[in-house]
């Protein structure tokens, strides 16, 4: 009996070892041929089509396609469509006189970047190429057709075009050529603004270590920036305000020194700053950054498939992939970890919402003061306080992941903003009192459509014009792009 047990046990062991060896052999064979190129990707001219890169790197490409997914939805952020103005109507007042008051949505995945930019009301409704309110610079972060056109036209010439001039050229959303060198597949910087920002700080971006490059390819776009219209005549030149450093105050100091403002608010007449999305700058103040964790570690974690380890290009919230992102380092329960993230977001949201309302009211009170005859001298400090308060609010909310990336820093910025908002409203109460007005200023109902009408927007007209643009000019752009790309040869290098 013992012999039979020993025999059966031995057979099971031999079978198991045989299966294991066979499996390892298969995986090694897969690994050997996994990245055998099927096509030549041009190294002379930028190849913007992800579908071409995907022939050589199918796993990365297939995972990237998942950025089109819009199913994730948290309490405050999501990967699907959410009308930020509807949820936060104070924004309409804060951005009065600026295109963001017309339309502002939470960002979707990278696959939607080009489509969403075409459809957003902020880009206007050009009737023909060269028409419309926005410069070509607005395309800069939307896809690899941008470095392709910068290569063809020149950087200054690209920034000198109108947004609609390049409509038929911009059809490939954020992808492979934005971050990878086609010859070596190394991470690379394709946006000159980031290179120039490092030069302004006295640093060489080419000497950055690989782990930092896993941040910097993201920092090409996920940063604060402005359009410098004085650098080159006729160009809206993209510049990162990093000359003094990366903090909110450093950028503000730079803007103040050059007398820069994005627009003059039509209600308060304050010279305003519009923060973009300073994700990299805020991340650099975080615990994760100090411990050497990169953007890609959480938003593009490694995964294994068919014996291959590769970077998951389904770029999105780590909360949709906790096992591969968070659990590499953390050992909490899933529900506990998610609850911690949502709690941070909730606390920051409470502060930013309070700040937004205070600044919005300050704009309305300033409008009343001007109507009653306030002088420039009376209003100078008040308007500067409004500018500073709103800049701090915008800097905090424009970075969508800030409440998790660095909640202490964001709450510090919000607290500072509340101080300036309080000073602005206190100053306004004194001015209004001197002008004989000793009662609360009447406020409109804080609803998106009500406030858009209050600041003079004709939203019916805006939407009708955009709809016409989408029906007429956009199809022409897409047709031209399809015809152009059909002429670009794809050279096969393998029949396998």
Structure, described:
One of its GO terms (molecular function) is metal ion binding. This is nitrite reductase (cytochrome; ammonia-forming). It catalyses: 6 Fe(III)-[cytochrome c] + NH4(+) + 2 H2O = 6 Fe(II)-[cytochrome c] + nitrite + 8 H(+). It is found in: Cell envelope. Residues 22-27 and 29-33 have low confidence and may be disordered. By secondary structure, the protein is mainly alpha-helical. It is built from 21 helices and 6 strands. Helix 16 packs parallel to helix 19. The longest helix has 38 residues, at 334-371.
Largest sheet: 2 strands, antiparallel
Helix content: 40-55%
- Strand tally is 6
Distinct helical segment count: 21
Beta-strand share of residues:
under 5%
Structural class: mainly alpha
Rg of Cα set: 26 Å
N-to-C span: 54 Å
Provide the low-confidence segments as ranges.
22-27, 29-33
Shape: globular
Mean pLDDT: 93
Order of H and E elements: HHHHHHHHHHHEEHEEHHHEEHHHHHH
Strand order, main sheet: write it out: 1-2
Question: Which features does this protein show?
Answer:
496 residues; mainly alpha; 6 strands; globular; iron; metal ion binding; nitrite reductase (cytochrome, ammonia-forming) activity
How do the strands and helices of this protein lay out in sequence?
Layout: H1 2-33, H2 50-56, H3 58-64, H4 84-87, H5 90-94, H6 113-119, H7 145-153, H8 155-160, H9 176-179, H10 192-200, H11 210-219, E1 226-228, E2 237-239, H12 248-258, E3 263-264, E4 271-272, H13 279-283, H14 287-290, H15 295-299, E5 302-305, E6 308-311, H16 334-371, H17 376-398, H18 402-405, H19 407-434, H20 448-454, H21 459-486
Antiparallel strand pairs: 1-2, 3-4, 5-6
Subcellular location: Cell envelope
Protein name: nitrite reductase (cytochrome; ammonia-forming)
Main location: other
């Amino acid at each position: 009996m013992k012999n039979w047990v020993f025999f059966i046990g031995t057979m099971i062991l031999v079978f198991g070892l045989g299966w294991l060896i066979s499996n390892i052999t298969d995986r090694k064979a897969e690994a050997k041929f996994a990245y055998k190129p099927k096509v030549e990707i041009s190294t002379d001219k930028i190849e913007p089509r992800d579908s071409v890169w995907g022939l050589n790197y199918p796993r990365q490409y297939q995972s990237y396609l998942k950025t089109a997914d819009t199913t994730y939805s948290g309490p405050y952020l999501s990967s699907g469509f959410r009308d930020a103005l509807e949820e936060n109507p104070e924004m309409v007042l804060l951005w009065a006189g600026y295109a963001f008051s017309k339309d502002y949505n939470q960002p979707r995945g990278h696959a939607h970047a080009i489509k969403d930019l075409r459809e957003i009301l902020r880009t206007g409704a050009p009737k023909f190429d060269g028409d419309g309110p926005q410069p070509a610079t607005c395309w800069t972060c939307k896809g690899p057709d941008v470095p392709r056109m910068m290569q063809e036209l020149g950087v200054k010439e690209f920034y000198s075009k109108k947004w609609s001039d390049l409509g038929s050229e911009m059809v490939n959303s954020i992808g492979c050529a934005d971050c990878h060198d086609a010859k070596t597949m190394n991470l690379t910087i394709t946006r000159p603004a980031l290179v120039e920002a490092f030069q302004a700080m006295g640093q060489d971006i080419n000497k950055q270590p690989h782990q930092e490059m896993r941040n910097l390819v993201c920092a090409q776009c996920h940063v604060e920036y402005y359009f410098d219209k004085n650098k080159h005549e006729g160009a809206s030149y993209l510049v990162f305000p990093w000359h003094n450093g990366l903090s909110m105050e450093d950028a503000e100091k730079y803007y103040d020194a050059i007398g820069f403002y994005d627009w003059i608010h039509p209600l308060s007449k304050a010279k305003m700053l519009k923060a973009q999305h300073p994700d990299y700058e805020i991340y650099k103040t975080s615990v994760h950054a100090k411990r050497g964790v990169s953007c890609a570690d959480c938003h593009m974690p490694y995964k294994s498939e068919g014996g291959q380890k590769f970077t998951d290009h389904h770029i999105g919230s780590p909360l949709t992939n906790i096992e591969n992102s968070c659990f590499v380092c953390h050992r909490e329960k899933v529900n506990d970890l998610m609850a911690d993230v949502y709690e941070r977001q909730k606390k920051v949201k409470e502060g930013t919402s309070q700040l937004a309302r205070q600044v919005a009211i300050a704009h309305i009170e300033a409008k009343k003061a001007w109507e009653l005859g306030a002088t420039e001298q009376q209003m100078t400090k008040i308007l500067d306080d409004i500018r500073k308060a709103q800049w701090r609010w915008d800097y905090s909310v424009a970075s969508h992941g800030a409440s998790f990336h660095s909640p202490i820093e964001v709450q510090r910025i919000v607290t500072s903003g509340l101080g300036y908002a309080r000073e602005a409203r206190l100053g306004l109460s004194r001015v209004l009192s001197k002008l004989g007005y000793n009662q609360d200023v009447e406020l409109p109902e804080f609803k998106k459509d009500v406030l858009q009408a209050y600041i003079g927007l004709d939203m019916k007209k805006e939407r009708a014009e955009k709809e016409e643009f989408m029906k007429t000019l956009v199809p022409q752009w897409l047709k031209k792009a399809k015809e152009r790309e059909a002429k670009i040869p794809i050279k096969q290098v393998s029949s396998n």
